[in-house]
Prior knowledge:
- By secondary structure, the protein is of the alpha+beta class.
- It is 18% helix and 30% strand.
- It has helices at residues 80-83, 118-131, 148-153, 173-176, 196-203, 256-262, 277-281, 300-311; strands at 3-5, 13-18, 27-32, 38-42, 68-69, 76-77, 88-89, 95-103, 112-117, 141-145, 163-168, 184-188, 191-192, 211-218, 221-228, 250-253, 268-271, 288-292, 295-296, 320-326, 332-338.
- The longest helix is centred in the middle third of the chain and has 14 residues, at 118-131.
- The protein starts with a strand and ends with a strand.
- Mean pLDDT is 76; it is low at 1-85.
Amino acid sequence: ARLTSAPPELPGFTAASVCMYDSMPMRRLWVDADMERALALTMPAVTVDVNPKGLPTASTHSPTFSASLSPKGITGSPDASILMSAALVNLAGELVGINTAIYSQTGNYAGYSFAIPTSIVTKIMTDIKQYGTVQRAVLGIAYQELTPELKKEHDITIVNDGLLVGEVVDRGAAMGAGIKAGDVIIAINDVETHNGAQLMEQINRYRPGDKVKITYVRANKKHNTEVTLFNNQGSTGLVQAANVMNLGCAFKKLSDDTKRNLKISYGVQVAGLKEGKFKDAGIKDGFVILDINNARVNSAEDVEKVYDSIMKSNDEYDKVMFITGLYPTGKKMYYAVDLAD
């Protein structure tokens, strides 16, 4: 792209004309010297010097206003039509963000669009291809962004920002590494974490079982510690894609004779039991499920809906099916099926 000078209202920026290669209007991208910020602005007809794909360029009408973007995190641009239709690139033409959402106060294309850093996108794609689901690492803390008020309250003098640890989860990754409430996390693997978004961006780059270096402040002294990240079940194991087949059986509709003999009007029967969660819990072939977690079930689809609801829950400590049912002999039984890996 052809380097040009930035307009006077953007002091400290250099500029590059870029084409989005998608028949959208030409845009001009400004990036400051340290690549911390970028500004995308719709421009009147401009010429692109480099077009590696040989695609036609385009022109546009009057300029729109601009706002801060960041190739290092998730931030926004006020011309959402730019980013929802094209990639966020740097001056070298490298992809640095994938656009995923728009925030608009009017409901139309004008608003803020949001991009996920490509380093995280690459990890997500790899996880889905290899494991069938995203591997999310958990540090195991509750925190607040450090403010002048919190600095004064906790007598913190050697840093101005960071993440103040408010609580450390029992048996979590942070506890195992010696991090305590009152510590201020300032970097992960030597990448500074000034706010919660930066902390989450760094943690999202890793999988359960990965080791990271945490730099933190305690009693106004800097310390380093190595943390082995956990998954949301509190272990270092990789999570497999949630699938009702993990239960290890099929479900068949009850016959009228079975309903009559057991004096019931609904339920679903376990069939073809093999290795899996149900067998581990002690359930046997022929067991008739009446309800799961107090929800009536009358088909395989009902069981799958309950299973999916449990697995999608944000409560990592409640991945359990509480099952009530009958055996063909009429014996009533209760089972707790642990769905956690």
